[in-house]
Specification:
The structure is a single chain. This protein is mainly α. It is globular, with a radius of gyration of 19 Å. It has 9 helices and 2 strands; from the N terminus they run H-H-H-H-H-H-E-E-H-H-H. The chain starts with 19 loop residues before the first helix and ends in a 7-residue tail after the last helix. Helix 2 crosses helix 4. It has a domain of about 110 residues. The relative contact order is 0.12.
């Protein structure tokens, strides 16, 4: 059996693999580069490649697998092929990168540095530098307020410092505390969590969804909020604070102070973010 591999043309700053470390470096370049337009183009193209790779993976998962094509070596080869295919398709691109580039230019400050947050602690800044671009892109294509996305990711993961982990210590990439219900067929991470029963906190062992990347976590979160009837009201308001109240009313979390905590976190973000 053979796999078709797309060998992309070299793109400065994009590299030959897709990961959030490279994306974080590009975001830092947005803040310091003397040529911000070039840096914004690189960020936009990296995002397009990541989304294409995710779509390829989801399309394969939706298809019916055969025993001969379901081994670990085959899955690894398919993942590598998806990555190279995504890089190839992202250059020159399918149009998503251009749309994101225009958004970055529209929200940039006069000095070319994308607006982000007020003066904040280092761990908060690191979290936002790493994930704000993802939240922005998900917000743009899902209708979910960007501040809500970032605030939930921050609250559920403790600004990335309490990320749900497997028993061996490896990360689950689950930024939003989404549990693995009966309809979930992917990997899970079993952890002790605090749930509120009749207004009282209790420690319970819960199974949470595990992903292969933060991009998968963002995508799954957006799918949950936009496709579930219970969260319909969340995308029907442009006000992030109101969206926080609606997501609590819909039962996203059992914490009676959930919405207030989200709104408090939102105060970190610049008014224009």
């Amino acid at each position: 059996m053979s796999f078709v591999r797309y060998i992309p043309r070299p793109v400065e700053g994009l590299g030959t693999s897709l990961d959030f470390n490279g994306l974080a470096s590009l975001r830092q370049k947005l803040r310091t580069d003397t040529e911000p337009k070039a840096a914004q183009q690189q960020v936009a193209q990296q995002f397009e490649a990541l989304f294409i790779q995710l779509m390829l993976k989801q399309a394969r998962q939706a298809s019916v697998a055969t025993p001969l094509l379901d081994g670990e070596p085959v899955r690894m080869a398919q993942a590598l092929n998806d990555e190279q295919t995504a890089l190839g398709l992202a250059n020159p691109g399918l149009g998503l990168a251009q749309a994101l580039f225009e958004q970055l230019r529209a929200t940039a400050s006069p000095t070319g540095v994308a607006k982000a947050v007020r003066n904040i602690p280092g761990h908060v800044r690191a979290f936002i530098d790493k994930l704000a671009d993802s939240a922005s892109l998900v917000a743009r294509h899902s209708g979910i307020p960007e501040k809500l996305i970032l605030s939930q990711a921050a609250l559920e993961s403790g600004w990335g410092r309490r990320e749900i982990r497997h028993e061996d210590g490896s990360g689950s990439f689950n930024l939003f505390g989404i549990k693995a219900g009966a309809g979930w067929s992917g990997k899970v991470a079993n952890v002790v969590t605090t749930e509120y029963v009749d207004g009282k906190p209790q420690k319970l062992i819960q199974a949470f969804r595990a992903y292969g990347s933060y991009m998968e976590s963002f995508s799954d979160y957006a799918r949950l909020i936009t496709q579930s009837a219970r969260y319909r009201g969340v995308t029907q308001t442009d006000c992030a604070q109101e969206a926080a109240r609606r997501i609590q009313d819909a039962g996203y979390a059992t914490d009676p102070e959930y919405a207030n905590k989200l709104i408090s976190i939102m105060s970190y973000f610049d008014a224009d973010h």
